[in-house]
Amino acid sequence: PAPPRPAPQTCPLLLRVFTTNNGRHHRMDEFSRGNVPSSELQIYTWMDATLKELTSLVKEVYPEARKKGTHFNFAIVFTDLKRPGYRVKEIGSTMSGRKGTDDSMTLQSQKFQIGDYLDIAITPPNRAPPPSSRMRPY
Asked: Record's Gene Ontology CC terms (predicted)?
């Protein structure tokens, strides 16, 4: 018989992903009072899933996102403990057909918590993504 497989270090979770194809994240009021945007994808994954792995899962669902140069901007949407409603935290980006600095970033490394949502703003290759509200130092 085969030797027993080591237990995984992280347990799978149901990741609720919301995508836009206009390069902008959803507005936070679209997540209020139990509502969520209609573009929901449900992905079973792990806390150590990388942004690159999540990108390829999204591309399986949206063939148009496979075009080289398509830009994916990831953000975590989470409940604000200090005031009612949700907050968004941009965590990184990937691009179809190109290696990037954020590819190996994991959900866990960005303090993702089970119950948070992932919002992915997808920008087609011919359109530059809107400038981020804040520049990230590299």
From this structure: nucleus
Query: For residue 2, what pLDDT is reported?
Result: 66
Task: Provide the domain limits for residue 80.
Answer: 13-123
DSSP H/E element including 117: strand 117-123
Please give the pLDDT value at position 133.
46
Q: Which residues of 7-35 are buried (b: 16+ CB within 10 A; e: fewer)?
A: eeeeeebebbbbbbbeeebbeeebbeeee
Q: Tokens 């087609």 appear where?
A: 124
- Alpha-carbon gap, residue 65 to 26, rounded angstroms: 18
pLDDT digits (tens, 9 = 90+) for 45-64: 999 999 999 999 999 999 99
Q: What is the domain-level CATH number for residue 48?
A: 3.10.20.550
Question: Running DSSP on this structure, what letter comes out for residue 69?
Answer: T
| Structure tokens, 1 | 């018989």
Domains identified in the chain, total number: 1
Q: Is residue 74 part of a domain?
A: yes
Task: Give every residue of the chain whose pLDDT is below 70, as ranges.
Answer: 1-10, 127-138
Q: How far apart are CA 86 and CA 35, in angstroms?
A: 11
